[in-house]
Write a structure and sequence with these properties.
The structure holds two protein chains of two kinds. By secondary structure, chain A is of the alpha/beta class. Chain A has ten helices and eleven strands. Chain A has a single domain, classed as P-loop containing nucleotide triphosphate hydrolases (Rossmann fold, 3-Layer(aba) Sandwich), CATH 3.40.50.300. In chain A, α3 runs parallel beside α5, α4 crosses α5 and α5 runs parallel beside α6. Classes of the chains: A alpha/beta, B alpha/beta.
Chain lengths: 320, 319
């Protein structure tokens, strides 16, 4: 369905009169492919490049190099309307992603109107059908975003994303701004729609518990690369990268009596304009050795798994 | 032992007629973490702000009891309250960038707390600031003192906020979503730090959060808030072992636990939305969203004891 090959996106880099040469390597060599109906969960912390990757896949941002193909067609060869029919976004904040001065029916109908050449009656029927599918009553169509709750707004954003019946939906933190009870409603809705409409999701989130629940495959992103990627079951059962382990340990499940983990990452923060040599995780890694400073851990995928750690095949060391 | 903070029947109303807090009672003892948990708009932050007397103009606050040690907070003058704030009672907010002044260095802001409350010299203040920055795990504290807030990462800023809150050795720390803006690995570090400091200093900690994971790992006591009321409260152990109020049970079902929540099944969710509560609202505010609602829920619902040290406001709890 979607194939991403060696995609890079760097920002800045021109040496100006007053600025030093500072290249931010936001996406630094990412490849993956995802079959129809799959859900790729992309997890990582702020600044790891996950949202930039999402924007590249949506075609909102050109790549520096590399190729993104959807159903065999390169995104670079498609115009905006063609892209919109294939890929649609759902963003984090339903407060800022809906035009406050438009009625809900116009917001949801906009992608149809932008494609042009659809009779008004048919457009209205499509909009009403999609509102019903996302669980909004017909009377909501006449309202404005300010009259809706956060959960209802996110349903509107979902309806707008799906009204063109795209193949792929890029969900960038779709539930992070919502209360937990509403988050569960939206996650359940996204799961139902995927089954009903045969959608493929790229699901970007910082919340590992949520990703574990929705994703069939998981990629862990750190400083612009997928440092680990595997089928969801495998990754959660047997994480091979120390960063994945730290992220997993940081998930605070609602189980009392368990201490707060010592993730052991220290207080050095990653900087995408200054990516460490060798293994990019080594300054924070609890098991780093001397060779991690020099040697690149990048290897071709093995049995469909990626783990960019020199000790990935050394479970004793990883578990320590 | 007498609690450090004791609140009984706190009510807060806003000028637009919203009843934000409707009869909240809670206690925090020395060395104890009491978590106030609930979703946005439930009144948990308003409860914290009214304890500090920091409510916006036009808000009205009343309480049968509102006591910090022997201070009666309801009758304390603004001036005396200002003396307590930042001294014996300290507060940490969610977004450290908006609570730190961007125009002053970290050192100057931290030292000011001590100068103001303890009338000590700037040099003494800076000395204590450096000491505390070290305690909260900041390397090279001397360098950090001379930096401005924008030069620090989010995790470092939140550590600075914690260190600043500790300048005058407070006895009560109110933390309102202190890690919500942070990455998960940093969140774990900050929470561990809070726990360590609390043990070391015997702090009473009132921790406000929407995250049941944080509650489970941090709290000794929990109060679950919904629509301005504490609908269930008890020891953390009792509350997670035998959640009783349908809202508490619903919240717990909403959060997936990796490896335990079945993946091909929908998550539990709570239908509907929080109602708007005006003055004179009667009955259980959750009844429109509750699967067990019955006619009695429309009348006054008393607080009932579930077990020793565990109570809930629900008609299903036998009298």
């Amino acid at each position: 369905m979607i194939e991403v090959r060696d995609v890079y996106r760097h920002f800045g880099g021109r040496t100006g009169l007053f600025s030093a040469d500072r290249v931010v390597r936001a996406v630094d060599g990412i490849s993956f492919s995802l079959a129809k109906g799959g859900v790729l969960g992309i997890v990582g912390e702020s600044g790891c490049g996950k949202s930039t990757l999402g924007r590249l896949i949506l075609g909102l941002l050109p790549t520096t190099s590399g190729d993104i193909r959807v159903e065999g067609q390169s995104l670079a060869d498609l115009d905006r309307r063609e892209r919109a029919r294939l890929i649609q976004p759902i963003f984090q904040d339903p407060y800022s992603s809906l035009n406050p001065r438009q009625r809900i029916r116009d917001i949801v109908g906009l992608p149809l109107a932008a494609q042009g050449a659809m009779p008004a009656a048919k457009q209205r029927a499509e909009v009403m059908d999609m509102l019903a599918r996302v669980g909004l009553s017909a009377e909501m169509a006449e309202r404005y975003p300010a009259q809706l709750s956060g959960g209802q707004r996110q349903r509107v954003a979902i309806a707008r994303a799906l009204v063109l019946r795209p193949r792929i939906v890029v969900c960038d933190e779709p539930t992070s701004a919502l209360d937990v009870s509403v988050q569960a409603q939206i996650l359940n809705l996204l799961a139902d729609l995927r089954r009903e409409l045969g959608l493929t999701y790229i699901f970007i989130s910082h919340n590992l518990a949520v990703v574990e629940h929705v994703a069939t495959e998981v990629a862990v992103m750190y400083l612009g690369r997928f440092v680990e990627q595997a089928a969801s079951d495998d990754l959660f059962r047997e994480p091979r990268h120390p960063y994945t382990r730290a992220l997993l340990a940081s998930v605070l499940t609602a189980e009392p009596g368990i201490a707060i983990p010592d993730v052991g990452l220290g207080d050095i923060y990653p900087d995408p304009a200054n990516i460490p040599s060798g293994c990019r995780f080594h300054p924070r890694c609890p098991i780093a050795a001397d060779r991690c400073r020099i040697e690149s851990p990048i290897r071709p995928p093995k049995n469909g798994r990626i783990a960019e750690c020199l000790f990935a095949s050394d479970p004793v060391r990883i578990q320590s | 032992m007498k609690p450090v903070l004791e609140i009984e029947n706190l009510r807060v109303g806003f000028a637009d007629g919203t009843a934000a807090v409707r009869g909240v009672s809670l206690k925090v003892a020395r060395g104890e973490t009491h978590c106030l948990v609930g979703e946005s708009g439930c009144g948990k932050s308003v409860t914290a702000l009214s304890t500090m007397n920091l409510l916006a103009r036009g808000a009205r606050r009343s309480a049968d009891v509102m006591r910090f040690h022997d201070y009666d907070l309801t009758s304390l003058s603004d001036r005396d309250m200002a003396r307590l704030r930042g001294d014996k009672i300290a507060m940490i907010f969610q977004e450290p960038m908006t609570s730190l002044n961007p125009a002053y260095t970290i050192g100057s802001q931290m030292a000011e707390v001590l100068e103001r409350h303890r009338r000590v010299s700037r040099a003494k203040g800076l000395e204590r600031a450096a000491d505390l920055l070290g305690r909260v795990g900041i390397t090279a504290p001397g360098m950090r003192l001379a930096q401005y807030p924008h030069q620090l990462s989010g995790g470092l800023r939140q550590r600075v906020m914690i260190a600043m809150a500790l300048m005058c050795e407070p006895e009560l720390l109110i933390a309102d979503e202190p890690t919500t803006a942070l990455d998960v690995t940093v969140q774990a570090q900050i929470l561990r730090l809070l726990q360590e400091l609390q043990r070391e200093l015997g702090l009473a900690l009132l921790l406000i959060t929407h995250d049941l994971g944080i509650v489970a790992r941090m709290a000794q006591r929990v109060s679950v808030m919904y629509a301005g009321q504490v609908v269930e409260s008890g020891s953390a152990e009792a509350l997670f072992r035998a959640p009783t109020h349908p809202y508490t049970r619903g919240l717990l079902a909403c959060v997936p636990i990796p490896g335990k929540t079945p993946r091909d099944q929908p998550l539990g969710s709570i239908p509907g939305v929080v109602p708007r509560i005006g003055p004179g609202f009667v009955g259980c505010a959750f009844r429109d969203r509750c699967a067990h609602a019955e006619p009695a829920c429309g009348g006054t619902v008393p607080r009932r004891t579930v077990a020793a040290d565990h109570d809930a406001v629900c008609t299903m709890v036998p009298a």
